[in-house]
Amino acid sequence: MRPNFNSTGARVAGAIAIAVALHIAGTLLIPGYSSPFAIRAMLVLACLLAVACVGQTLTIIIGGIDLSIPFVIGFANVVAAQLYGDGMNFVLVCAIVGVLALGIGALNGLISAGLNLHPLIVTLGIGTIIQGAVLVWTKGFPSGSAPEAVTKFVSIGGSVGPIPVPWLIPAFIVISALIILMLNRTPYGRRLFALGANPRAAKLALVNPLRMWMITYALSALFAAIAGVLLLGFTGSAYGDVGQPYLFQTIAAVVIGGTALVGGRGSYLGTVAGAVVLTEINTLLIGLGLQPSLVQAALGLVIILLVSLYGRERHVSASI
């Protein structure tokens, strides 16, 4: 089954319209909001969030959710810094982190689908175990840093030749195009939407639910790990809780972008727009002088409002 493009497309357009409106409001209310440096900073932050949101988009489309994302981000951040600090080649470090992340994600999918347990509980439990393991390994004091190449890759002041943006932004555009292509033009994408829309019908169409869940959650963990490594370059040092702000921001960005929490329909382009919206809301509220606690409260209010609107719709299978 194909996703409902009429509904999803309207929501994507709505998210883009909100992002444009927020940018206009910020430009009018805050001096320097539209300066080149400020725009580069918002683009970098939005890209980092959108990378972390890849897995949340996929898992929600299939009818699940992934609360282990912030823990995997912290895991990748700390492990990459620690291993590189111990003298290991960074390419090998990334390979190790990537393989471990794929294993963590596959385990999430295996337990959720194989034992028919709700992924919210499974992913939260696995994430907590990962966090505890990292704390035991580092004794609560992570060390290390990212190589200079990674730092330059995500640096707000970086440039791609004459283009005044860091390499992260064009690389993200390419990755986003590939993800959108994967969702709309590949057997995996068709099976993902079919399984999220109607699991029983998808199974009759020879879609293997267990394999799909394992692949989807493995991809989710992999992109969370990539976000963790990128954040290591962005912040300059290891921090186990670096992923915590992404716990609900990934869900909020996906919902703002029009992906249905009940599964079966959605768009990564919408998620990217949602990430931009959240980044602009953060920047706007901070620029207006609100304290971080009030900013978090405002974001929570946005999430509740959107979930109340999108979360009440009927599942796709109920309208067939």
Topology:
Layout: H1 5-29, H2 36-61, H3 69-85, H4 90-114, H5 119-138, H6 148-154, H7 168-185, H8 187-197, H9 199-204, H10 209-235, H11 246-256, H12 268-287, H13 292-310
Helix pairs in contact: 1-12, 2-7, 2-10, 2-11, 2-12, 3-4, 3-5, 3-10, 4-5, 4-10, 6-10, 7-8, 11-12, 11-13
Question: What are the key terms here?
Answer:
disordered C terminus, 320 residues, 0% strand, 72% helix, disordered N terminus, mainly alpha
Report what the structure shows.
The structure is a single chain. With 320 residues, this protein is mainly α. α1 packs parallel to α12, α2 runs parallel beside α7 and α4 packs antiparallel against α5. The N and C termini lie close together (11 Å).
The description of the largest β-sheet is: none
Q: What would you report as the Rg, rounded to the nearest angstrom?
A: 19 Å
Task: Give the H and E element order.
Answer: HHHHHHHHHHHHH
- SSE class: mainly alpha
Query: What is the total tally of β strands?
Result: 0
Mean pLDDT: 89
What's the short version?
With 320 residues, the chain is mainly alpha-helical. It contains 13 helices and no strands. α3 crosses α10 (209-235) and α4 packs antiparallel against α10.
